[in-house]
Write a structure and sequence with these properties.
- This protein is mainly alpha-helical and 348 residues long.
- Helix content is 74%, strand content 3%.
- The protein has 13 helices and two strands.
- Strands 1-2 form a two-stranded antiparallel ribbon.
- A hairpin with a 4-residue loop joins β1 and β2.
- The N and C termini lie far apart (88 Å).
- The relative contact order is 0.13.
Length: 348
């Protein structure tokens, strides 16, 4: 394993732990709020809402399972000046290695995010390009089935490196400070590298398709906006056009795609660089944690782009604050009101 000194940003352990803990809190808060809004609001009980809920669950799993393991390892290093024993071994040499679970969870949730964003893009493109067919093509049942297949396919792909190659293991990488796929031996079998390259190949194929579909949808929206400015549309014409909410939702999905593509690109560059023999220790830290921070960005995008989501989230936060507020003031007001009423009765 690479020496800790190779990672130039890993020297400030306190700052690193503070960053990781803050990230956990942001992921948990943002995605729990998203789920509360979607589950608790009938307006969001739609195919698009189901997909957003699936995306929030995938991001939530990263905050619950993936990041805490890194926090535990870094706190152990801070307190005992040494990493836990399991971090010095890989999953091939340890029967119950934590990374055997955490690694596939992180990879699987990342793949779920990509496939969900792809499905969101497809759903929005149909609403924009074929608005008359939206209700018949995009149903809750079909969306639920696609979500199940998305999770099953993503986690199958996440465990496939260990299933199809004995040379690939999972280990806690001192550069990325995460559980990563690695070669279990010092040799570099080409077959193992080809399997590892399946991840960026699959991810960029889906992301590429997502970007293309977004471009087509946004181009259609732009053309529609121009026509609406210059032509007075009849009722029959407007019936075949996408609604304002569909257009706004398509732009939101485009923003999600852009954010995820930007956060995933460094990982893909790092994997390809590894195949070519580059270690890039410091770069790997930034690449993996930039991708991890994406798990708390979606709720911000929804809040900025979707007024109904923002209003509902605000209502939930305000009601939660009122429910936890001390009741002393209310009781005092009630008592004082009662005394005042008694005095008025006596005077009359």
């Amino acid at each position: 394993m690479p020496e800790l000194a190779n990672c130039s940003v890993c020297t400030n352990k306190i700052l690193m732990v503070v960053f990781m803990i803050s990230l956990i809190l942001a992921i948990l808060f943002g995605n729990l709020l998203t789920l509360a809004v979607i589950v608790g609001t009938k307006h969001f009980h739609t195919p698009q809402g189901y997909l957003k809920a699936s995306l929030a669950v995938a991001d939530l799993a990263v905050g619950i399972f993936v990041v805490p393991v890194s926090v535990y390892a870094e706190i152990s290093l801070m307190i005992y000046n040494s990493m836990p024993e399991w971090t010095a071994r890989n999953s091939q040499t340890t029967p119950f290695h934590p990374c055997s679970f955490i690694g596939p969870v992180f990879a699987g949730c990342t793949l779920v995010s990509i496939t969900t964003i792809f499905l969101l893009t497809i759903e929005r493109s149909i609403a924009v390009l074929k608005p008359l067919h939206k209700e018949s093509v995009i149903t809750k049942k079909r969306t639920s089935i696609l979500i199940v297949f998305s999770w099953m396919g993503s986690f199958f792909l996440a465990i496939s490196p260990m299933v199809f190659s004995n040379a690939i293991a999972l280990e806690y990488n001192p550069c990325s400070r995460m559980c990563n796929y690695a070669l279990g031996s010092a040799e570099f079998p080409s077959q193992a590298w080809k399997i590892l390259l399946l991840f960026p190949a699959f991810d960029f194929t889906l992301l590429g398709g997502t970007v293309v579909i977004n471009i087509i949808s946004l181009t259609t929206i732009r053309q529609h906006s121009k026509r609406r400015k210059h032509l007075a549309e009849t009722e029959s014409q407007s019936a075949t056009k996408p609604t304002f909410s569909d257009i706004k939702a398509a732009k939101t999905i485009g923003t999600l795609t852009l954010a995820f593509t930007a956060s995933f690109t460094p990982i893909a560059v790092f994997v390809v660089g590894n195949v070519l023999g580059n270690e890039w220790c410091t770069f790997s830290f930034f690449a993996f944690w930039i991708l991890t921070t994406n798990s708390c960005w979606n709720v911000i995008i929804y809040g900025v782009r979707d007024q109904k989501f923002r209003s509902r989230a605000y209502q939930l936060l305000v009601s939660a604050h009122l429910n936890t507020a001390p009741k002393k003031t209310v009781n005092e007001n009630t008592v004082n009101g009662g005394k005042l009423s008694d005095e008025i009765v006596k005077q009359t």
